[in-house]
Amino acid sequence: MANAQASPRKMPKLDPKIDPAADTNGDSQDILEEIDSIQTSLDCLNDQASDEILKVEQKYNMLRKPHYKKRSDLIAKIPDFWLNTFMNHPQIAALLDETDEEVLRYMTQLSVEETEDIRSGYKIIFEFKTNPFFENKQLVKEFTMSESGEMGTSETKINWKQGMALTEKSGDKGKEKVGGKRDKPGDDPPSFFSWFEDNSMGGDEVGEVIKDDIWANPMQYYLDLDEDEELEDDEDQDAEDEVEGDEEDGVGEGEEEEE
User: Fold this and answer.
1) CA-CA distance, 255 to 31, in Å (whole number)?
2) What is the DSSP string of 67-115?
3) Rounded distance between C-alpha atoms, residue 133 and residue 166, angstroms
4) Counting beta carbons within 10 angstroms of the beta carbon of residue 206, is it exposed (0 to 12), middle (13 to 18) or buried (19 or more)?
5) Whole-angstrom Cα distance, residue 119 to residue 38?
6) 40 SS3 class
7) How far apart are CA 54 and CA 76, in angstroms?
8) pLDDT tens-place string over residues 100-128
9) CA 47 – CA 39 distance, rounded (Å)
10) For the segment 52-90, what is each residue's pLDDT rounded down to a tens digit?
């Protein structure tokens, strides 16, 4: 990838009549031009660093693939793994209603694939076994960065079975906000699949959560692990150990006094 060469910036000339701080020998102007030259060099180094970081990310994405494959094969053997993972994620769970949960019982695989250059987008792939809701065995939602820097989406058309289209029952088929309220009084709650079928431009919080959070480490949500709770449990155990130790010391001292 070619580095973008930073174009040199033009420095304003200092007018001694306007700026008393400028000396008549032009020393300040020379210093400012040197500072600007250094900044241009720093900008070039930052561009080079970005390219090097990208190469490292690409390398490790390839190294992760066989581990993802092995993990997916094992996950497929656990019933309702992805349903429980989604339900235990506080932000994604807010988007699920009871019917969504029934659909997700048929979900067998989740995977995320980034574009080769990483920067231009990614896609999320949901795989399902035969189910009473739709004909598709695979649903794909793809996120692509446009030239203007906006993230656009495209997705598989869901072939709903007759009378089972969840998005038609939904009261809000729009962009879902992570952690937002599930419904309004008098309205049906939006379906998780309303998010899937939404292809509007702009940032997508749900997609980012699935890619960077759930896909990165689904086990912590399947097991419903809470780091704060684990830390508290460890602290409680340490406190109990300290109390037991103090009691034993007290008993030992009492026995010595009696002797």
Assistant:
1) 80
2) HHHHHHHHHTTSTTHHHHHHHHSHHHHTT--HHHHHHHTTEEEEEEEE-
3) 9
4) buried
5) 28
6) helix
7) 32
8) 999 999 999 999 999 888 788 999 999 99
9) 12
10) 999 999 999 999 999 999 999 999 999 999 999 999 999
